[in-house]
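note to self — DONT lose this again. spent like an hour looking for the file last time. sequence + predicted structure for the chain T wanted, 162 res
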Amino acid sequence: MFDDLLAANRRYASRFHDPGVAGVAAKELAVLTCIDSRIDPLAMLGLQPGDAKIIRNAGARVTDDALRSLVLSANLLGARRICVVQHTNCAMVGSTEDEMRARVTDASGADASGWEFLVSLDQTTTLREDIERIRECPLIPATVEIGGFVYDVHSGELVPAV
């Protein structure tokens, strides 16, 4: 089932040369963005491998796990800037939790009633609240710059939102 991926990796590995990139963010940047396959975080921001720490989850939400990764990025991995990038036409925007649970239950055939998917009816408000959660975290240094953006999946434009 994964033969295509393993074959692609063999081709990649046969041409791979370790560039010696350090494990810290060369551009002092951590990016939290969505899992949407239309988003190429490095290309979107003009970055190369090694420039930034990239964290992804559905909806680009500041979950406990995303915050854990941001704390580590800011304290141990060289990030002095945090960029939260949500996007247009996100599947996590425009539904209530109950509606999303019903959709997942229908699709999976299993009861999703105990799940919280962190959907949003107001993307701008949600993004502001998530940025505030990062700012309020005592483990994120006050010197870290934090920005919120919305990426337009149709134009490629990144718009400051917070």
